[in-house]
Amino acid sequence: MNIKSETCHKLLRGIMANKTVAAILVAGVMFLSSCATATKNILPTYVDPLQYEQYDCSQIGTEMVRVTEELNQSYRECKAHASRDELFMLGAFLITGPLAIVPAVISDSESTERFAQLQGELEALEQASILKECDKRMLPDIPEFRKEFSVFTNGDSIKILKIGEKEYKLPKVFHRYECPLRNEDFLEYKSVKEAQDAGEKPCKHCKPRGRTINQERIKK
Fold first, then answer.
1. Are residues 132 and 175 in the same domain?
2. With CB atoms counted within 10 Å of each terminal CB, which end of the chain scores lower, N or C?
3. 90: which residues sit within 8 A by CB, 6+ positions away?
4. Is residue 207 in some structural domain?
5. Each residue of 147-181: pLDDT tens digit?
6. Do 187 and 109 fall into the same domain?
7. Number of structural domains found in the chain
8. Residue of higher predicted confidence among 195 and 211
């Protein structure tokens, strides 16, 4: 169970006040499970796509632009919180005496919840755009965090191998977002595992193995 950042920083202050090796080791183990959640581990909150049933493609696109912009900002905030806690942990183990000035602590729970909510809203809007058969060119680019953690298969990359009279469909290849071999007509997978489970193979050029999170998505 995650503990709020205030708790983890209070714990660290206790570490610096108590210099015994045992206290540092025990508190260090507790710290690793208590601070800001890594963005790759924040799953989306479920949002019902039916709330966008009356939207046309133009309205869906406009709403997706707004949500994507807010999601990018929320992603940067969550990354900053996680980086802050990593640095604070490092300082706690390096400093042998109490800090003269203890940094102000801001709870990351609100930003984490906001990030999860915005992810859910964007996924619902994307489902609505599919149901409405909206032109992808009317929709905004995917958010920053998915460029970092997702992998992508070219939509027109199906290849057929013919041996004698038999034809075999070769596996598609998945890429990192920035791979020059990825085109604009792509299918997105939220993780390497998801792509591999679908029978896709990693690109030999951009080598996406280990790039993305290997976690099961919660099925809604």
1. no
2. N
3. none
4. no
5. 888 899 887 655 555 566 665 555 688 999 999 98
6. no
7. 2
8. 195
